[in-house]
Amino acid sequence: MRKSKNKKTKTCRHEWVVFSTALQDVCLLVECVKCGLFGTVDDPTEEEWSEAFDAAENPYLWTDQSRVTVRGVPAIRHVVKNPDISDSENTLG
Known about the structure:
By secondary structure, this protein is mainly beta. The protein has helices at residues 8-11, 46-51, and strands at residues 16-22, 27-32, 38-42, 60-62, 68-72.
């Protein structure tokens, strides 16, 4: 993963929320609820890894700022309705 050089990292008082895990990188995925930056908590303990297992359904606040590595801003998601399929098939879920 690449580190971000975004100026927001210096001006925002980040509030990180764990929202998922990255199996291949073995890290926790976090997002700042204030500015939208993404980060990781690298080398989580077994307890932290277990706690994050259901973070996709139950995100939670991460308070140890010193362990977060800022990675970058989220990509803008652009969804377009496909007119050739029914409304019930035009969902993201």
